[in-house]
Amino acid sequence: MDKIESLAKRRGFIYRGSEIYGGLAGTWDYGPLGVALKKNIKDIWWKRFVEDRSDMYGVDAAILMSSKVWEAAGHVATFADPMVECPNCHHRFRADTIEYGKDGFQHCPDCYKHELLGAPRMFNMMFKTTVGAMEDSSSTVYLRPETAQGMFVNFKNIVDSFHPRLPFGMGQIGKAFRNEITPRDFVFRTREFEQMEIEYFVKPTDWQEHFELWRKEMHDWMKDIGLRNNDVYELEVEPEDLAHYSKRTIDFEFDFPFGKKELYGLAYRTDFDLRSHQKESTVNLEYIDDVNKEKFLAHVIEPTFGLDRTILAILCTAYDEEEVEGPASAEGSGVAKETRSVLRLPKHLAPVKIAILPLSKKEELSAVARPIFDALKKDFVVQYDETQSIGKRYRRQDEIGTPYCVTVDFETLNDKAVTVRDRDTMKQERIAIEKLPEYLKEKFK
């Protein structure tokens, strides 16, 4: 994890939030490459689960919602984690993260005094704020702790506007906020994060069939973004551990360097949410089946994908180190060995697809390299890099996961060809400039 976090900062993927002021726990800023990686994931997810399906509708609900939404959904009363406090340093921790020592006591992870930590008490994780000029109970709102409720409160709008037949779903990508007691493990547990979430509405009798279909869809998605099957595990959540809205939940856990932790979730929420909002709002949210002339509350299958955890899982999977031949040793004893760090990102996720590397900054090479860059950037995300030695530039592109490097050298002036280097194999191939666009398009098919 230290190596991945260091690489993420050094190469412009992810920075610590408010870093020049000492940082703010549980917040992270995405740099240029992190933004590009995040956008690639979101675009692929949206195309796969919304645009390419005839039964899905995209929405983008407001972050601030009426407090009655969260009261109806049960979050005001139940969205809480058990918290313990150290009687010595008064630092607070999630109770389920504190381990017992050999003496049987729970010791404070910060000051490690031998007092017992205080008894657990529930801590509501929703961020509270106010709207308008008056600060009273009527102006209280919350930053949403999940994106799901924005889809439930728009259920009637979608039905009225588009008249969909069951089953159909709503998809949304957006920010959520939780006042985590102990944010930790890089971007795994944070106070501000992004979710890619689906609420799929079905007939009450059909939920098991669609639950299994979405279960397969989630496994296929993980495969498509490069996660290895042996790093992903299913955990059937026990009835006593289910969320208040769920009748069945499967957690998809990933083998992170800090342990096996939840990556995604698949929940059967029954009609809990629509029933709760119908009762609180007094608006009829029943679905009318035109064929059978039935009226009923739709049941819901909810696949949830955490975007930040997806990025972390992809970085953990893609990061690799290998010993390769370096430059000749100073003692003249032959070829020295060096360790190469490389992100073996799936090509469709890589923030930069191609790097154009003129061997030197001399004008005659730039005059050839720049037009190649201009031509390729119409179809690919391309980076132009002419600083430091060619070896260091290769290593730099390896670390950010660029699949192909195109080197323009002095031979290019004569043979009108360039050297294309493959990130994973480091093999090089000489390609005529005129054939380069089609050659690279074939590589990215």
Give a verbal description of the structure:
The protein is 29% helix and 31% strand. It is of the alpha+beta class. The protein folds into two domains: 2-66 and 145-316, BirA Bifunctional Protein, domain 2 (2-Layer Sandwich), CATH 3.30.930; 352-443, Anticodon-binding domain (Rossmann fold), CATH 3.40.50. The strands form seven sheets. A seven-stranded mixed sheet has the order 3-10-11-17-14-13-12. A five-stranded mixed sheet has the order 21-20-22-23-24, with helices on both faces. A three-stranded antiparallel sheet has the order 4-9-8. Helix 3 crosses helix 8 (272-281). The longest helix has 20 residues, at 32-51.
Keywords:
445 residues, BirA Bifunctional Protein, domain 2, Rossmann fold, five-stranded mixed β-sheet, 13 helices
Layout of strands and helices, then pairs:
Layout: H1 2-10, E1 14-16, E2 28-30, H2 32-51, E3 56-58, E4 64-65, H3 67-73, H4 75-78, E5 80-85, E6 92-94, E7 121-124, E8 127-130, E9 140-143, H5 148-152, H6 155-162, E10 168-177, E11 192-202, H7 207-224, E12 232-236, E13 248-256, E14 259-270, H8 272-281, E15 287-289, E16 294-296, E17 299-306, H9 307-318, E18 319-328, E19 335-343, E20 354-358, H10 363-376, E21 382-384, H11 390-400, E22 404-408, H12 412-415, E23 417-422, E24 428-432, H13 436-443
Parallel strand pairs: 3-10, 20-21, 20-22
Antiparallel strand pairs: 1-2, 4-9, 5-6, 5-7, 8-9, 10-11, 11-17, 12-13, 13-14, 14-17, 15-16, 18-19, 22-23, 23-24
Helix pairs in contact: 3-8
